[in-house]
Amino acid sequence: MQQDVLRYSVYQMMPPQSDLLGADVSFMCRGHTSSNFDFDSFTLENYFKPPKHYLKLINVDGDLQAIEDDKGDKKRGGADREVMLTADLALSQAQLSNLGKTHPSELYIVPGYHDNHPEECAWPRILRMRGSTRRYFFKALHEPFSFRREIEIYAHLRTLNIYDTHTPKLASLVVWEDETVLGFILEYLEGSHNLSEVALQAPLEARAKWMPQIERFVQDLHHANLVWGDVKPANVLVDVHGDAHVIDFGGSYTPGWVDEAEMETVAGDLAGLEKLREFLELQ
Which end of the chain has fewer beta carbons closer than 10 Å to its terminal beta carbon, N or C? Predict the structure, then answer.
């Protein structure tokens, strides 16, 4: 009997960074379900830190068999995290406490969102908290600098009490037990649409309503010594009530909207707002 052994490791549910998307991950990203998959008990922790199994492939007389390898490292897998709650965020303890924190095990994935948003399948987007049906939008840590910038702006918005109806409110940071930050959750604007999608079909009355709402909010930011940083239609949502909401405080710039030389400056915001007014044909 010939018996050759090849050891390798697999995830029960591969993390999103992997190129080896299995069937379970594919259907979850696309918003489909299977008969043996229970979303009611599938948390954000399950997604980012799946159990890791080590298998060995055994060639027995030409028949390749896979069996569990007891000698494998049984540590749980998961995405690398690069921002520490207290060490990397330029916030006071009072500000951090005010933002709140939620463990990924308390957040459940809501299926179906990616049916209409397949391009955003890097991680689950819509979540609910344990014991609640209220939905939240999840933004995972992707690029540390822009992530820190966004969190710090949200913290200042709350501290200065200039939250209003024109930006989604931050509900909580999402933090592991070792104080590393996975991301944050925002209030989910049910039925909202991107400004770039609705502007061309919108009547003048609607467009004339959105621009002052956006300008007033950006003015509040500037009075608080804060900068939006990436003015463009894709960073504005219009809700079911016809109100505009500014999103994405990660900074940077988009060519054609803000010049690189004015990136993340008040001047850049003002220049972007002028182009946004032109885009809405309000000149």
Answer: N
What is the rounded CA–CA span in Å between residue 194 and residue 117? 12
Cα distance between residue 237 and residue 246, in whole Å: 7
Which three-class secondary structure state does DSSP give residue 37?
A: coil
Report pLDDT for 142: 78
Are 100 and 41 spatial neighbours (Cβ–Cβ below 8 Å)? no
36 with 166: CB under 8 angstroms? no
Compute the distance between CA of residue 151 and CA of residue 170 in angstroms, rounded to an integer.
Answer: 9
State percent of the chain over pLDDT 70. Answer: 73
Residue 56 has phi, psi (to 5 degrees) of: -125, 135
Q: Which of 140, 106, 121, 105 is nearest to 31 (CA)?
A: 121
Secondary structure class of 162 (helix, strand, coil): coil
d(CA 164, CA 168): 8
